[in-house]
Amino acid sequence: MKTSILATAVMEYRFAMCAVILVLMAVGMRPAAEAAEGWLEKRPVPIRRPLRAFDRRKIAGFRFVEDIGDGSADDVATEEYLEWRLVPTGSAFLDTEVAYLSVYYYTKTGDESTLLIPHTPEICYRQLGNQVTELGSMRVPMPGGDTIKAKYVRMSHPTDAANKDICVAYVFCVNGRFHDDREKARAHLALPWIRAVYFSKIECVTRVPEPHRLNEALEACKQILAAAVPELLQTHFPTRSDIDRARLR
Fold first, then answer.
1. How far apart are CA 224 and CA 86, in angstroms?
2. pTM over 0.90
3. 197 three-state secondary structure
4. Alpha-carbon gap, residue 200 to 30, rounded angstroms
5. Mean pLDDT for each consecutive 10-residue tract of the chain (249 residues)?
6. Distance, CA of 28 to CA of 32 (rounded, Å)
7. In sequence order, what are the beta bridge partners of 44?
8. Domain spans in the chain, listed from the N-terminal domain onward
């Protein structure tokens, strides 16, 4: 009899303790979730210098012709971007006729959707009727002997003579680190311990002079990126100190 009463008392005690624990969890879960959400929430990192102030003289071997951006931020989901048409001045690239440089800068602006990686050329150009004929990667030289890896996409259009044979090269920059792959850049952005983030897509386009001269188009893209990226890092993109300060806000 005493054993039965003791067992019942133990069960009641355990039930009461479980009930208390459940109540405490219910009470504390929301604040804990809110605290975790606040800690994981990405912080914006403002650009140091507007892209519209980019020094055109930095693109050696090419001359600025016109700004082809229509001034509408709706299409590119950011107000920090440049879209330039260039023409080669060096004899090595005269046959490429024309080149384009585009830079888009993104950071959090009140909505996590602003941190979504935009479409890459092999996706969005196809929506305009272009056909991808070749994909590859290339190394772009940086100051000090370093290189970054960029992706190139060769495409053709069946009816548009201006896009009969073009080469698009691009690279993503996430907090100063470079990726030639959209999913790698997305994964970097999503890392939970990175609280302050920005990313940029840097892209250039050239025409392939003749079917067997893809290398010339690639070299033109490489030269544009090799000039643009260091200037962006040195003058426009946030420094590591800027990112650290944004992280603590």
1. 10
2. no
3. strand
4. 35
5. 53 55 50 39 93 94 89 73 92 82 88 67 83 94 95 91 89 96 90 91 94 93 96 97 88
6. 6
7. 197
8. 5-39, 43-248
